[in-house]
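In response to reviewer comment 3 from the previous cycle, which asked for concrete evidence that the modeling workflow produces usable outputs, we include below a single protein chain processed end to end. The sequence was submitted unchanged, and the resulting structure tokens are shown without manual editing.
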Amino acid sequence: MSDKQHANRPLADFIVHNLDSAVVFPKPYRGGKTAVSWQTEELQHVSIASKDGRIVWVGPAAELGQNVTIEGSARFYNGEGLLAVPGFVDSHTHLVYAGDRSDEFEMRVQGRSYLDILAAGGGILRTTNAVRGLSEEELFVKSAQRLEQVMKTGVTTVEIKTGYGLDLENEMKMLRVIDQLKAAYPVRIVATFMGAHAVPADRRADPDAFVDEICNVWIPEVARSGLAEFNDVFTENKAFSVAQSRRILEAGLKHGLKAKIHADEVNVLGGVDLAAELGAVSADHLLMTGDEGIKKLAGSGVIPTVLPGTSTYLMESHHAAARKMIDAGLPLAIASDHNPGSCQFLGANIIQSLAMLQLKMSASEALIAGTLHAAHALALGNEIGAIEVGRRTDLALFALNSFRQIGYQVGQNSLFELIIDGTPVFGEQ
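The workflow returned the following structure tokens.
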């Protein structure tokens, strides 16, 4: 090899060497109105080289030395017998909460209605009372336990929403807990402010005044703190109208908080239209979204995010129209929506299974939706979500023969190692 060829080889300080296989996406979605591809390819006998936490080369293990300049202090991770997929991205969760609502789950299974559960003291406001009753330290401990479980399923990036404080003091407390989780764990955490999750009982007499306070007091304070990247709102008959949601999201945009929206979970009110109008990064739930909503999303740049765990947990008679969205060319994402009331499914592997079982997605579609497209739902689609040169070295290593076994082995977990920014999380070989 000439000196010029040697000089052009990328430097590597970390190598996952001699993997049995690695899953790449030959034509990854790049965002905007570009075409969506659902192609996957399992490369055999692969090494992945990275420098400063970014992938610099992917190719046959036998050709590593010919294509990469390995630094003398480089670390090697033995990938023999392992499968590498992009680290999963859970782009919609409510991981920070307190309290137990298992009795509500049992009531729902027995056929009790939502109103029955509310009358028995259940619902979101029950969680609000529990969150308000804990110190930051206590809330951190409970949330950290859940976060650790999530990481053990192959998740390298997770979004966490507020929304159980429902007053400024406790919403800020939740944001500080999320920030503490960021500092304590290597997993990439994206914080979303969702003060507009519900109208608290003591504000129901004048919900517009509550919206005024969110827009004029809470959002400016959240923005000043720098603790949140997104602003989310629950647009439903039982929560916030389209007009109220527009005010909340516009206030967030004015203060530098990117928009997300809970839309079409129970009723089709116009949340999808609002998402497209304001350029929201994602519109989530979409359980009731039909053909007109799908047309509105097509080419809008909004990432449709569906939550099969929620519709399963709530025993809905139908699920989001994922197949229609895929056929319409939408960059569909999937996420867990883990929360205390309507979805206790936790982690990536069970969501992969439910996407296949309930939404009739193929294994390739589920993998791309739970990695690359979910990354786009956090405005990180060019940084993470695929095994590709230039992206962060975020990998989930499984002791499996094929990525198709992740969804197939329902409720099982064969994760062997998690690598975030080129660093093994659970142990170095």
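The chain has 17 helices and 16 strands. We consider this sufficient to address the reviewer's concern, and the full set will be provided in the supplementary archive.
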